[in-house]
C-alpha cells in the first residue's frame, strides 16, 4: 500500500533531483585571472620603433633580430598586482605581444574590466592608447603585420574607440554597425546591412563602433564579448556597439570558418590593466542577443 508518507517522500526526492539537475545545467562564470596567470601563456615579439614597415627588425650590423618568443616575460611586460584584494593584470605595453589562454573556447560570453595606465611606448607615444581582446585565435603567434599575434578577430580597446573591430592576419567577418541617430541615420540604432570586412573582401580590415560608451579616464570600463556559432557582439558598459557574423579566415582564396580558438590580451605600446576576466559557456544564444541578427 502506498502511504501518504511515501508519496511525500517521493515528491521531495523528485524536487531535489530537479533542483540538482537545474543547478548543474546552468552555465557558471569561470574566473580566468589569478595571481599566477595559471590559465594563460605569453608571447613577446619586438620593441617596435617608429617607421616600422612590416619587416623583421635588424640590428646595427643588418642581422635579423629574433622575437623574444613564448613564455619569456622580458621586462616584466605582464605582471599580476593586487588591488583591494583582487588580482589585476598589468600589461606594460613595452614590447608587442600577448597573453593567451591555454584553452580554446567556442560558444561563450566573456567579460572583463579594463583601465588605462599612464605609460606609452614607441611607436605610439604620440597616438591614442591601444590594446585589444583577440578572439577565435588559432595557429602560431607573429602572423600579423606587427609579428606579435595569432590569426584572430579583434575587439578593439583604444581610447575613444572601445569596441571597434579589426582583423588580425588573414581573418575576415561580416559587420553590422549600429549608427547613432543623426550620423547618416535618421533612426537611432537602425539595423544596417551586414558588410564583409577584411581579407578577401576588398574593404580594409577595420570598422568603427557606432557609439562611444567608454568610462572617463582613470575609471574601469566593462567590456563584454558574446560569441556563438560564428556570430559575435562587442558590448561596452552594457551597450552593444558592434554586431558581427560569418567569422572566417581566407587561405589560398578560400574562406574557412573561424568559430573557436584561444583568447589573447594584447600588449601594444600602452600600459593597460585588466581585472574580473570571466567566461561562461553558451548552449544557445540568449534571445536579447539573437535579436541583433534578425
TrEMBL record:
- Which keywords accompany this UniProt record? Signal
One example GO MF annotation:
hydrolase activity
User: Which domain of life does this protein belong to?
Assistant: Bacteria
Q: What name is this protein filed under?
A: 3-keto-alpha-glucoside-1,2-lyase/3-keto-2-hydroxy-glucal hydratase domain-containing protein
Is Signal there in the keyword field? Answer: yes
The record's annotation in InterPro entries points to:
AL/BT2_dom (IPR010496)
Q: Which Pfam families match?
A: 3keto-disac_hyd
Q: What range does the record give for the signal peptide?
A: 1-24
Q: Where is the 3-keto-alpha-glucoside-1,2-lyase/3-keto-2-hydroxy-glucal hydratase domain?
A: 28-280
Q: Which organism is it from?
A: Flavobacterium subsaxonicum WB 4.1-42 = DSM 21790
Amino acid at each position: 500500500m502506498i502511504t501518504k508518507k511515501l508519496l511525500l517522500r517521493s515528491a521531495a526526492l523528485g524536487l531535489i533531483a530537479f533542483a540538482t539537475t537545474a543547478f548543474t545545467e546552468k552555465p557558471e562564470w569561470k574566473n580566468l585571472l589569478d595571481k599566477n596567470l595559471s590559465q594563460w601563456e605569453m608571447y613577446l615579439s619586438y620593441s617596435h620603433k617608429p617607421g616600422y614597415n612590416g619587416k623583421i627588425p635588424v640590428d646595427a650590423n643588418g642581422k635579423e633580430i629574433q622575437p623574444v618568443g613564448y613564455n619569456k616575460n622580458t621586462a616584466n611586460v605582464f605582471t599580476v598586482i593586487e588591488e583591494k584584494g583582487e588580482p589585476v593584470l598589468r600589461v606594460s605595453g613595452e614590447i608587442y605581444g600577448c597573453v593567451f589562454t591555454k584553452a580554446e573556447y567556442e560558444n561563450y560570453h566573456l567579460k572583463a574590466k579594463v583601465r588605462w595606465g599612464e605609460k606609452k611606448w614607441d611607436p605610439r607615444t604620440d597616438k591614442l592608447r591601444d590594446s585589444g581582446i583577440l578572439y577565435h585565435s588559432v595557429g602560431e603567434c607573429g602572423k600579423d603585420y606587427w609579428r606579435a599575434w595569432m590569426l584572430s578577430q579583434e575587439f578593439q580597446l583604444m581610447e575613444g574607440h572601445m569596441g571597434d573591430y579589426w582583423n588580425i592576419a588573414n581573418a575576415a567577418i561580416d559587420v553590422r554597425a549600429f549608427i547613432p541617430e543623426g550620423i547618416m541615420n535618421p533612426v537611432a540604432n537602425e539595423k544596417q546591412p551586414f558588410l564583409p570586412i577584411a581579407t578577401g573582401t576588398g574593404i580594409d580590415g577595420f570598422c568603427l563602433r557606432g557609439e562611444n560608451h567608454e568610462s572617463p579616464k582613470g575609471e574601469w570600463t566593462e567590456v563584454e564579448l558574446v560569441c556563438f556559432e560564428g556570430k559575435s557582439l562587442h558590448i561596452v558598459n552594457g551597450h552593444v556597439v558592434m554586431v558581427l557574423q560569418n567569422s572566417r579566415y581566407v587561405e589560398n582564396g578560400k574562406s574557412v570558418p573561424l568559430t573557436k580558438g584561444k583568447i589573447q590580451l594584447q600588449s601594444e605600446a600602452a600600459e593597460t590593466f585588466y581585472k574580473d576576466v570571466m567566461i561562461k559557456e553558451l548552449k544557445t544564444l540568449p534571445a536579447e542577443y539573437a535579436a541583433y541578427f534578425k
